[in-house]
Design brief:
Acetyltransferase (GNAT) family protein; binds coenzyme A; single chain; Aminopeptidase; 24% strand; transferase; GNAT_dom; alpha+beta
Length: 212
């Protein structure tokens, strides 16, 4: 399988929306899927962070990021992503690459598409000399266990491999480590509106300091 990661442009909008519709089916709120103005803003504000992965020339997945000066304070997706427009939240002189979106079409999953996007994100962290890659990771499997354990316990079990989560298991496999559970991160029924802040430290950063 030939997987190629490249920057996306506004011309890719329809394909990006197809990826989002397939990757975030209901109950995920449709109004949270990308709109044309948001894609235009990503391309204008931080084009290096706007990535698609093509498989044999077909767009199979995407990943969007911005730069922040990260403090470790709990936050919401709307705050860090500026409601998806990144204009007010992108800080070119910040120290961390923050992933605000990652999605792969279901029929292309399990073939390393997201991994290729994560490699590209890690390479961007290195080339920009940033300290870390972070993301607010959904935990869509949590609603099945919420009656019997806390989100923190759920995260621990996923990290230990006792439970599998569609998104967090992927992040753990990429070497991202959970730092903290954030409440009311995003309207996300399956994750019970929670997300886990996950972190990968740039191995080239000699002062490397964990936020967690
Ligand atoms: C999470 C997601 C992006 C993963 O995409 P993907 O292309 O299937 O992932 P990859 O094929 O690159 O997986 C890379 C590795 O992680 C593993 N992995 C991926 N998903 C996994 C899962 N649910 N459970 C266990 N391992 C998983 C793969 O087995 C693979 O391991 P390997 O290197 O040993 O083969 C995809 O499931 C998705 O789009 N989910 C819905 C959208 C979403 O919620 N995005 C997250 C927003 S925070």
């Amino acid at each position: 399988m030939d997987i190629r990661v490249r920057p996306y442009t506004l011309d890719d909008f329809e394909a990006l929306l197809t990826v989002q519709r397939e990757a975030f089916p209901p109950p995920f709120p449709e109004e949270l899927l990308w709109n044309r103005e948001q894609i235009a803003a990503h391309v204008e504000v931080f084009p290096e962070g706007a990535m698609v992965a093509e498989v044999d020339g077909i767009i199979a997945g995407s990943a969007t990021s911005l730069i922040v000066r990260f403090t470790g304070e709990p936050h919401t997706w709307a705050e860090v992503a500026d409601d998806g427009y990144i204009r007010r939240s992108h800080q070119p002189d910040g120290d961390s690459l923050y992933g605000i979106d990652l999605c792969v079409r279901p029929s292309f999953r399990g073939h390393g598409v997201a991994q290729a996007l994560y490699e590209a994100r890690k390479n961007l962290v290195r080339s920009l000399g940033l300290k870390r890659l972070i993301a607010g990771c959904r935990i869509p499997g949590f609603h099945r266990y919420a009656g019997s354990m806390t989100a923190e316990e759920y995260v621990q079990k996923v990290v230990q491999g006792e439970l599998k989560d569609l998104v967090l298991s992927f992040m753990v496999k990429q070497g991202l480590k959970p730092v903290q559970v954030m409440d009311d991160y995003l309207e996300d029924e399956e994750s019970m509106n929670k997300a886990v802040l996950v972190e990968w430290l740039n191995p080239d950063d000699k002062e490397g300091k964990k936020i967690g």
